[in-house]
Write a structure and sequence with these properties.
The structure holds two protein chains of two kinds. By secondary structure, chain A is mainly beta. Chain A has no helices and 31 strands. Chain A has strands spanning about 5, 10-15, 20-25, 30-35, 35-40, 50, 55-60, 70, 75-80, 85-90, 100, 110-115, 115-120, 125-130, 135-140, 145-160, 170-180, 185-190, 195-200, 205-210, 220, 230, 235-240, 255, 265-270, 275-280, 285-290, 290-300, 305-310, 315-320, 325-330. A six-stranded antiparallel β-sheet of chain A has the order 15-16-17-18-19-20, with no helix packed on it. In chain A, strands 1-28-27-26-25 form a five-stranded antiparallel β-sheet, with no helix packed on it. The two termini of chain A are about 30 Å apart. Chain B is an alpha/beta fold. Helices cover about 30% and strands about 30% of the residues of chain B. Chain B is built from ten helices and 14 strands. In chain B, helix 5 (about 130-135) crosses helix 6 (about 140-145). The chains are: A mainly beta, B alpha/beta. The interface of A and B includes residues 54, 133, 135 and 192 of A.
Chain lengths: ~325, ~325
């Protein structure tokens, strides 16, 4: 296998797939790996290895108090901060923890285990159970006190404070695989088994269907103003406009980036600029300015890209691949 | 990256699936097998290679009414592929009452599953002592045998030679293709069961060239499930036969459980090898016919209430 070609950056090769990467609230980055470790990096320092899970890490998020929140196929939910031993928050003896969510507004954290979503507040854990597996979770972006859970045939909305109420159920037939709020909290978007997105306007549960993808849509990125949603699942990045009451309905999506053979796997939106980054199935990573065709390649010839994230200051882009290759490149 | 072979293990409760899985997890075979067990499973082993799942059968919104998949498997296989250590094989245990088709269709339909794994075989464990009774009571027990790529005929020590011969005859009436391995307490060399590529007909035929030949068994069981085997020494028209099969499976796929075939297509040097589970078909041109080889086409259908005359007519019309 030839080594990936990188411009303007540093790289590492780990011996397990890179599952996710994220920056914590203090700007420290971490890659989560299939061997259960976090590889934590700060500027110009080699990554530090922290053993967190026994099997693979399946989900990663920045913890609202700093450090990292991870779920693993060892059934554990763990909070890891530099300089302290990882702290187990929850453990299930046989079910994977395959999703985590956090809210910086409310400080709440949550995970899924089988059909159950669990919200943690201090020492208190509240369980919300569904008829089928909870496939994705997200806290509302306004106050962070409402949890959206995707599942078969729709999504459920729960208030964090109590498990005894009936959820608001947003219905749509089929298998929903993940869920995301629009930054203003007006829309919920799920990705589906059938190479499409489904959306709901939260106030009246009006349906929106965004289809035409050649492949499953695995990655969603909202632009910094929350006006557009950029998505993977095609040879180019597909962007949907969310201004106005009806969101993308009745409007053609825009396409960004080069039309290549590889399928875009991951999309990231720059925190301060109108800049999109994408990683593909054939190991390319490119940047493109929104509305200005012409891509700059940051990487070529790698394995399938699994994760991309801009640093909070927008200076760097962290890249992770299926074969354990990871890199940190200059953004733009 | 090579695809990880996956064996789907079916069989009625008490047939011996758990015995086999326990052996796989405890024996010193030097291989790394992951086992996906269902919520009613009885595996007593706490092992990080055992994954517990709820069988969740999902309908696909793709216009195909019979297209159901196992959503839980898509998620779990994806998760297993993230691990550092790679697996020699993955086993999926299904509940005794499960219809095997959603599991199998998952391997045809989902792009991520197809990329990383391949269906190696549907292996059905059959209890030699009780199967005759089970087949009278349970439609699922009948279908599990009809679906199988290979069969472990277990508990053979509990029956007489005559009973055993009778059981094999019944199995053959439901499924003329699947090799039968006789076992006691599921004791069999795992290499004979796993990684056999039994799902791939071309490979199965290399091992047993006469697999699709007509045989001496009954072709229909009292349940209405049986098989029809068609053959031709004349080359077929590739377009016609593809269209015929596609239409046939679209219209009758509910009742046709499995179809496997090897076709001699006019103006092609390679054989067209295909197989289907209900309406979902896959096939491609594989190894070339040898210059001195006698070319042939053969198709075997396993299903319920098959109309042999109709199938024969349709097939004959495809001769080039």
């Amino acid at each position: 296998m030839s080594e990936p070609r990188l411009t303007n950056g540093q790289s590492w090769r780990f011996d397990a797939p890179v599952v996710a990467c994220v920056y914590d609230i203090n700007g420290i980055g971490a890659f989560a790996l299939g061997d259960g470790t976090l590889r934590v990096f700060a500027a110009d320092q080699p990554p530090k290895t922290i053993d967190v899970h026994r099997g693979a890490i399946l989900a990663l998020s920045a913890h609202p108090e700093g450090g990292f929140l991870t779920g693993g196929d060892d059934g554990r939910l763990v909070h890891t901060t530099l300089g302290e031993p990882p702290r187990e928050i929850y453990a299930h003896k046989s079910r994977w923890i395959d999703n985590v969510a956090v809210s910086s507004e409310s400080g709440l954290i949550a995970c899924t285990s089988g059909k159950t979503a669990i919200i943690f507040q201090g020492d208190q854990a509240t369980e919300f159970t569904h008829a089928t597996t909870a496939t994705g979770i997200a806290f509302d972006p306004n106050k962070g006190r409402r949890l959206a859970v995707s599942h078969y045939n729709g999504a459920s909305l729960w208030w964090a404070k109590s498990a005894t109420h009936e959820p608001k159920v947003l219905k749509w037939k089929g298998s929903h695989l993940s869920i995301s709020w629009s930054p203003d909290g007006r829309f919920l978007i799920s990705s589906m088994q059938e190479n499409a997105l489904h959306g709901w306007r939260v106030e009246d549960a009006a349906d929106m269907r965004m289809s035409g993808y050649p492949s499953k849509v695995k990655s969603l990125a909202w632009d910094r103003r929350g006006r557009a949603l950029f998505t993977s699942g095609s040879s180019r990045v597909v962007g949907w406009t969310f201004t106005g009451r009806n969101g993308p309905m009745g409007r053609e999506p825009v396409e960004i980036g080069p039309d290549r053979d590889g399928i875009v796997q991951v999309v990231a939106a720059h925190p301060e600029l109108d800049l999109i980054a994408a990683g593909t199935s054939d190991g390319a990573v490119w940047f493109e300015w929104i509305g200005e065709p012409g891509a700059n390649f940051a990487m070529l010839n790698g394995a399938k890209i699994t994760t991309l994230n801009f640093s909070p200051d927008g200076a760097h882009l962290a890249i992770g691949s299926e074969d354990g290759f990871a890199a940190l490149v200059q953004a733009a | 990256m090579p695809q990880v072979p996956v064996t789907v293990l079916t069989g009625y409760l008490g047939a011996g699936k758990t015995t086999l899985l326990n052996r796989i997890l405890t024996e010193n075979h030097g291989k790394r097998y992951a086992v996906i067990v269902n919520e009613f499973g009885e595996i007593g082993i706490d092992n990080d290679l055992v994954v517990d799942t709820d069988e969740e059968v999902f309908e696909m919104n793709n216009g195909c009414i019979c297209c159901t998949v196992r959503g839980d498997l898509i998620r779990i296989l994806g998760g297993l592929m993230k691990r550092k250590e790679k697996f020699d094989a993955i086993l999926i245990e299904t509940t005794g009452l499960a219809d095997p088709s959603p599991v199998v269709q998952t391997f045809f339909v989902d792009e991520d599953v197809k990329e990383k794994t391949r269906l190696d075989s549907i292996t059905t464990v059959v209890d030699a002592k009780h199967i005759a009774q089970r087949l009278k009571e349970s439609n699922e027990a009948v279908e599990q045998i009809a679906f199988a790529d290979q069969i472990l005929l277990n508990k053979t020590d509990l029956v007489t030679a005559e009973e055993l011969a009778n059981v094999e005859k019944i199995i053959r009436s439901l499924n003329p293709l699947a090799p039968i391995h006789r076992t006691e307490r599921c004791s069999i060399d795992l290499d004979k069961v796993l990684g056999q590529n039994a799902f791939d007909l071309a490979h199965a035929l290399e091992l047993k060239p006469h697999l699709l030949d007509g045989n001496e068994y009954e072709h229909e069981h009292e349940s209405g499930i049986g098989s029809v085997s068609l053959s031709s020494a004349l080359p077929l028209d590739g377009d016609k036969v593809t269209e015929w099969l596609r239409n046939l499976l679209t219209e009758r796929g509910q009742n046709i459980l499995r179809t496997k075939g090897i076709l001699d297509v006019k103006n092609r040097d390679e054989r067209l090898v295909f197989q289907a589970v209900h309406m979902v078909m896959e096939g491609d041109y594989q190894s070339a016919w040898k210059p001195d080889e006698k070319r042939y086409s053969r198709i075997v259908f396993i299903g319920r209430d098959l109309d042999e005359a109709e199938l024969r007519r349709g097939f004959s019309a495809c001769v080039a």
